[in-house]
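Folded chain entry —
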Amino acid sequence: MTRFDAHDLLPLILPIYESHFLQLTTLVDTITPYSILFFVFIIWMLIELVFYMYISFIVAPSLDSQLGDSTPLFKHPKDIMKVVYRYYKILGDTYPFQEFISKFFLLANYKEIYSQNYDSVLAFSLFMKPLNALTSEEYDTIDKLRDMASENFNIKWKNGYNSQVKHIKFNLEPVSYIHRPLALYGILKFSEFCTNSKNLRLNGFTFHKLSKGISSISSHLLTLLLIHLLRNIILDTRK
């Protein structure tokens, strides 16, 4: 039986590898700085395209979604307005309830606020819903609160809805989105990182994030004292 040695296969294998090596060197020789830039440009355009599709089809449709239900400060929304009514009844003419309400309607005259206008602002304030989306139970609560305001502050609501009067409704306003390149967001994020590091974190501030994505900034007093102590030591050594 004939035995094959690996060295016997070299004359057959070497020409194949030599051919591939020549093709590779030829390809490398054809690469120029312009072709590299063009390749990088094509890759970046593909990344921008993926980013655009992600924003358009995943992020943008969720911009108008409301936050999930949170633990209410009061057991029932009606209790919130009862507290408001009580305090404004105590304040009396010092700060009238009518003036308070007019600020929700962008400083409109309270006499131009009709019954359904007031119902609408209560629907937004208490239930974060447009008026036509309320359940029968929620609308019954709104109805009672309107009557309570009329009784406590001697307000004669006109029936109907005044379309000339608008009230604030933050999270009920539609959110529009104008797309910007990923490069711009990268520059802004880098700038934000530098600013936060220099002006906040290095001065003892810390970022906190809630489960619903809402973030806030607070400072740790001990960290702040240590940073200022270290800074004073460095300044003293330079004198």
